[in-house]
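Form 7-S
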Amino acid sequence: MILLRRLLGDVLRRQRQRQGRTLREVSSSARVSLGYLSEVERGQKEASSELLSAICDALDVRMSELMREVSDELSLAELAESAAAGESAPVREPVPAVPAGVRPMLNSVSVTGVPPERVTIKAPAEAVDVVAA
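Output:
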């Protein structure tokens, strides 16, 4: 069974560690006890939306970015769980064919202030153009 609180905790921990910050620093900034933040990161406690907002503010991360990353992790976990159970993937409507020579446009994302070795792109390689600035 996939627990959302565990996925959320994993993503919060990675965000904090990417910044090289300690639990103590983030808990102080978010005005939440160190023990409670630790339990949230370990997936032992469900964080309220107010608490998540405070933690996101402390980490200077938009809640939508946090939830998007959690959603991506959840999708991967569900696929892995389905594959382990021997289930086939749900049938989806076919994607319309793209005319030859035309590449579909993806949403662009600008990443600044992050060392290149810390940027992770989770997408099929053939669907992404990465341009270093």
